[in-house]
Structure formats: C-alpha cells, structure tokens
Amino acid sequence: MHRHRSRPAPLGAASLLLALAAGPAAAQEASGGWGLREENLSALVLFAFFSIVILISIRLARTGRPLFVRRIAGLNAVEEAIGRATELGRKVLYVPGIMSIDEVQTLASLAVLKHVAKHTAEYGTPLDVPNKDPLTYAAARETVKEAYLEAGRPDLFNDEMVHYVTYDQFAFTAAVSGVMVREKPAANFLVGSFYAESLLLAEAGQATGAIQIAGTAEVAQIPFFVVTCDYTLIGEELYAASAYLSREPVMLGSVKGQDFVKFVLLVWIVVGLLLATFTGNLALQDWLMSQ
Amino acid sequence: MFKKRLPLLLTFIAGMLPIFSFFFRAPALLEDDPTGNGVVQVSDTFEQWMVILAAGALLLGVVNVFQVNLKKISNRGKGWPYAVVFLTALIVTAVFGLWDAFARADITAWYAHAAYQWIVEAGFKPLQATMFSLLAFYVASAAFRAFRVRNVEAGILLAAALLIMLGVNPYVVRALPFLPDLTQWTLNIPNAAAQRGIIIGAALGAASMALRILIGIERSYLGLQKGE
C-alpha cells in the first residue's frame, strides 16, 4: 500500500478552476502542478459537448415532451420469454456476463435483470442467476432481492436464486451449459459482457429449444449471438435497455441526447469523407487520427 | 437516507476520478512517485481497493457455493451428485493449493508443489481445453444454421463467408489469384465499416449510460427506484 504525504495537496475544484483560468503553464507554476493534460484536450472537448447535450436532453425530457425511441424487438420479447417459461412451468436463466461490476455492460445487464426479476416475481416463475464474478454476484443478488420486494413477493426470493459458481471462464461455461442441458430452462437471457464462452452458452441453450435473448457490446461476439439466439441486443441497444424498459422520460432523454451526438458525428464523418474525396484535403482525417 | 444517498455519492466520486485523471493533472501525493499525477495516483489507489473488495466478495461467493450445494445434497435435489463432485473438487483443490502456498518456503517439501501442479496440469487444464475445443463443433453447427439461404440477407451472408473462406485457402488462391485482394477488400471496407458503426454506437451508449450512473438517474443496479 502506498504511503501518503503528511501534507496533501489541495484537491478542491476551486483551485483547479483558478489554475485553469490562468492558463496551463501559469497554472502549473502557480499551483504546483495543477493543470490540463493537453494531450487529451480534444477528448475533453468531446466529453464536455457530449455531457452538455445529454444534460440538455434530460432537462427537455423533464418538461414532459413526448419522446420517440425506436422499437427494440429484443426488449419487447422479454415479457414473451418469461410468459413462455411460466406457461411451461420451467425456470428462467439469466447470465449477467462474465465481467465484474466495473464494466458498464455488466451494469446495463443488472438493469435488465431487475426488469426480468420483477416479472418472474409477478408470475411466480423460478429464476436462476449464475455468476462468474464475485462482485457482480453480490450486486445481482441485491438487484433481484429488491425486484422481488418491489413486486410485492419477497417470500418468493431465496438465496439459491442468485448464486456464485466459479471465477474460471470455462468452468463457469461448463456449469451453466450443464444447467441448460439438465434443467432445460424455457428462457435464457445472456446479457452483458461475453467472450469465448458466448457461442458455447448460446449453442447449448439453442439445442434445448429455449427462447434466447442475448445482448452484448462486444463486437466479436455479436455474430455468435445473432446466429444462435432468437433476439440480440446489439451494442448501444444494451445500454438503452434500462431506459427503454423503464420508460422513464429522464432516462429516455439521455438516449435521445446520445442519438443527437451520434448524428453530429455522422455529419462530421460525411463532411470529412466528401472533403477527402473531392478536394483531396485530408486535414480533417489527419486531425481526427492525431487527436 | 444513508442507504440511498451514500452509494450514489460514492459512485459519483469513484466514477469521476478516472475521468478527472484523464483530463487533468495535480501535484503528486505519493512519496514513492514524486513526479506522478496526483489524480492518477488517487484513481489507481481506488482501483487497488477494488481488488481488495473483490477478494472479500470472492469469500462471500465461496460461502454461497457451499450453502447452495450442501442444501442441494441434503435435499437430494435435481442433479445432486454433480454438487458432490463440485464440492469435492473445490475442497481438494483448495487443500492442495493452500498446502503448496504454505510449503513454498520449504524447498524440501517439493511433493506439496508437485501434488498441486498435478491437479492443475492433469485435471484442470485438460478440462479447460475440452470446453474450449467444443467451440470448433459449435461454430460448425451455428454456421450451418446461419448459412441456410432463407432470404436475401442470409444469401449475402453466405456469399461473404464463402468469399472469406476461399480467399484464405491456398489451393483456391492458386487457381484464382485475385481472390485474396477481394477477401481483404471485403474485410477492410464493408466489414470494417459495419463494425465501426457498431463500435461508435456502443461507445456513445456506454458513455451515456456512465453519465446516467454518475449523475444518479440510473440506479437500478443499486436496487433503487427513481424516486428513492
């Protein structure tokens, strides 16, 4: 463990603002090392622009303006999958990926898990959530517990519902595949961050005839899910899932803001493309590559 | 109040630190790295704390493994023999692993290391390799389903896949020397364009989600509702 100095440097926002106002070089001299990392200036500008657009969108959403978000088939099918499991009297299997809680995909998956758990609680359908990461396990357990509480069925929650398996990737895959083959869940949700185990899990589930809904932002794994699952949340759809499922205007506002930034980037790319094609001017491309 | 606000405040602080450390620098706080960026040092320290937290949570996970599997065995639940194998493997590996760790200082206790190594090399690694090698069969069965030409999109997918596979086959390339260039073009232009579209969308989605978490409007991962 690192030892800290007896006289810590001031970490206040005011000092930082003063230092920034005086300029980078002056800031360093005046405040003993405070300053802007100029090599990341472009990223800071983009970050500030993105944050401002999102915050404005959330603000607009709070005024009650109706927001249109395109239909996401995979999320509309969540209730259908749980309903099917209920009718068949079989369990719902939810795998929240294999990464820890510091991965944004895992957090997005937990938001979907809460929605799924609420429905299984309402319908009295058994739910099984195996975990590879111990921190994700702890968070998933609290998420499911709260969902059952909110659904008014805390009596249906038990500790075996959300359980830890192992930290090893393929041992975890073997255990979950075993559950799929032996217990034949009627609905499998594979939502979160997956790597080499994605196809192993999805094919095992496909062979049992379960309805499968997958979601990941790992580009290399998306094709595997597309060919083996009934519905796949591709990339940004996974991150929009919690907003889409909750239908909260404030959350949807942030999705609209994200779409606006995407549109701006698209225009930027097209302008750069046209400039490079018709004028041979690669300044925009060079700037983008270097920054 | 404590249960609801404190996690959100901690999330904000822990989430802002890496962002702050990427854009700004501050005086060093650590004596053993006097020229370093203070914000990065604080952020790194938080990351080290997370490793400690994960170790604590791992213990919680092991306790849960015992609870769930012992209950399954005692109730003779579905698949209980697997639970016996699971717990036996866990206990045997843990015992030999701990024995190896404690006996490491004693060079005469080579048998402790050999026993643990045998479990890893003769048991664990072949099992891992077996699981991984299943991918070859699953890729074939998934490809068979995906490449059935049921509509135009599936037809395009099949054509692209055939092009890529033939383009890396030395016998075919000898007969059709233009094929590798076409394969590379397919990978570098249309394929890369589609992938980048997904990556840009996912990156913006992740940033938007992170922002929602930082400002506290996305709180379902804490088990909290909007109004809480």
Our estimate of the beta-strand percent of chain B is: under 5%
What is the H/E order of chain B? HEHHHHHH
Overall average residue pLDDT of chain B: 88
**How are the strands of the biggest sheet of chain A laid out side by side?**
4-3-2-5-6-7
The quaternary organization reads as heterodimer
For the termini of chain B, the CA-CA separation is 9 Å
Tally of separate helices of chain A: 12
What structural class do helix, strand and pairing data of chain B support?
mainly alpha
Gyration radius from CA atoms of chain A, angstroms: 23 Å
Q: Show the largest interface.
A: A-B, 96 and 75 residues
Distance between the termini of chain A: 35 Å
Residue fraction in strands of chain A: 5-15%
Total number of β-strand segments of chain B?
1
Query: Could you tell me the number of beta strands of chain A?
Result: 7
CATH structural fold name of the largest domain in chain A = Rossmann fold
Give a quick precis of the structure.
The complex is a heterodimer of chains A (291) and B (228). Chain A has 291 residues and is α/β, with parallel strands linked by helices. Chain A is built from 12 helices and 7 strands.
